DNA sequence: GGTCAATACGAACGCTGTTCTTAGTGAAAC
DNA sequence: GTTTCACTAAGAACAGCGTTCGTATTGACC
């Protein structure tokens, strides 16, 4: 008996390795069309997100891209939620983790977080799925383990490191989501407008008005590394 | 001419004060039903979110709670997005900001962030709207100004303080959203299960397995103040 | 009293995720 | 070689969503 999507999902939650079913196909092969597989679904899903954003990723959209009906997907995927989780999994799987170097733990953490951000931004809005996704996913846990190892090698106490990993992960995800929502370069384009709006505020906003330049300065990447450094600075000052 | 919802929205984005139209009513008053106003809509919306979560907040749900059709709302509100923004606005308006005290800037920041978290968690999932909402909302900017003032009084450099306000706001929102999604006390209930899942991981997760206790320890509030302190520690070490 | 602008609201459109049902296929069993 | 069977593919449909259109109803103003 080959596994139902539900079984695959619970298996995924526990081990991460999947029986795979390799080329074994049963069912109609209408014409020369490629058979639908989970990997094929994920490929087209990533393609859609990269092109049109995560909001445009619907079951129907994926189905029509595969030249089929929506119901055909439910033989391979439990849910939209399940699809999202699979996407995040594969996205995290492409993050390569360095061998922990006690002397360079700071740079290593920043590098991993930066790579994570990069991946999230390549697929605009997908970080929303990362926020909702259960943290028990194996691939998600893998990058967690990687960051954890780096912090431990850096001499951070286990309890502190454990919570820091969560905090860093959460911040990276939230930052990426915010950047995706605002629209990336749309931020830079609307900076002048934002500035004038801040300076045009009532008198009850003295600091916001005076430091409008500081408030609107910097690229999203600048702000990202700033906050990362903020947290890392807080880590080694016991 | 009384303003259309669009006009109210743009007015709101710029000033925040609204002409109000006070009891002036034109239109059918079927029976003794209360006339629909923006405030009434917001009241019932908050009620729904508090009871059933942000996911359950739909236009139709609000309309039926008001014993009317969905289209009746669009005379007072531009969008669902606009409704969300209004909710966040009113939520932020209930945050009272302390007079900046240079000696207690740390405690003051933590207090404001804690109050913000409290408000977000009272209405589960509403922080999602805060993430999407444009940061040009007057009420949102008000608490930004408040936190900014506290940091400046604490001697933080303007540029650093400006970016820190954004980082803190983003973290508070993301944390609240995560807590809402996981389900609050559901976290505590599933801790044992999570622990056993972590310890049951493959050998490629040595640190996660060894420190599973540390990883799953602490309440959400503990982790919240931990991360806040992390960022604040990073602030005053130039 | 008549005019007009603003509100209220039923009906409908296009979209979503999901399920039910039916048709079709290859591998295995006899 | 035929039959059985587990599985996939896919059409049709359902409930629910945000939103718009058209229309009826009302109060204030001339």
Descriptive account of the structure:
The structure is a homodimer of 238-residue chains. Chain A is mainly α and 238 residues long. The first copy, chain A, has two domains: 5-90, Homeodomain-like (Arc Repressor Mutant, subunit A); 97-235, Tetracycline Repressor, domain 2, CATH 1.10.357.10. Chain A is 63% helix and 0% strand. The first copy, chain A, contains 13 helices and no strands. Chain A has helices spanning 5-14, 38-52, 59-65, 80-93, 105-122, 127-132, 138-153, 158-182, 185-189, 191-199, 206-210, 212-216, 220-235. In chain A, helix 4 packs parallel to helix 7, helix 5 packs parallel to helix 8 and helix 8 (158-182) runs antiparallel to helix 13. The longest helix of chain A has 25 residues, at 158-182. The first copy, chain A, is flat and about 65 Å long. The model of chain A is unreliable at 15-23 (pLDDT under 50).
SSE topology sketch:
The structure is a homodimer of 238-residue chains.
Chain A: H1 5-14, H2 38-52, H3 59-65, H4 80-93, H5 105-122, H6 127-132, H7 138-153, H8 158-182, H9 185-189, H10 191-199, H11 206-210, H12 212-216, H13 220-235
Helix pairs in contact in A: 4-7, 5-7, 5-8, 7-8, 8-13
Chain B binds a DNA duplex (30 and 30 nucleotides) through α3.
Region (Disordered) (chains A, B): 1-30
InterPro entries (chains A, B): Homeodomain-like_sf, HTH-type_TetR-like_transc_reg, HTH_TetR, Repressor_TetR_C, Tet_transcr_reg_TetR-rel_C_sf
DNA-binding region (chains A, B): 58-77
């Amino acid at each position: 008996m080959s596994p139902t999507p539900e079984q695959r999902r619970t298996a995924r939650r526990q081990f991460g390795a999947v029986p795979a079913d390799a080329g074994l196909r049963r069912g109609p092969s209408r014409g020369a069309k490629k058979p639908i597989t989970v990997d094929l679904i994920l490929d087209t899903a990533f393609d859609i997100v990269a092109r049109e954003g995560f909001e445009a990723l619907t079951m129907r959209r994926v189905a029509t891209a595969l030249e089929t009906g929506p119901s055909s997907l439910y033989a391979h995927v439990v849910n939209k939620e399940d699809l999202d989780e699979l996407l995040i999994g594969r996205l995290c799987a492409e993050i390569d983790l360095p061998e922990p170097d006690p002397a360079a733990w700071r740079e290593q953490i920043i590098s991993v977080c930066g790579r994570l951000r990069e991946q999230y931004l390549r697929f605009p809005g997908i970080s929303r799925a990362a926020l909702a996704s259960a943290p028990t996913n194996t691939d998600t846990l893998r990058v967690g383990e990687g960051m954890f190892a780096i912090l431990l090698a850096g001499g951070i106490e286990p309890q502190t490191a454990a919570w820091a990993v969560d905090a860093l992960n959460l911040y990276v995800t939230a930052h990426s989501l915010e950047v995706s929502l605002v629209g990336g370069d749309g931020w830079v384009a609307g900076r002048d407008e934002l500035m004038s709006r801040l300076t045009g505020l009532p008198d009850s906003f003295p600091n916001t008005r005076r430091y409008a330049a500081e408030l609107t300065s910097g690229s999203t990447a600048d702000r990202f590394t700033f906050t990362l450094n903020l947290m890392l600075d807080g880590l080694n000052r016991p």
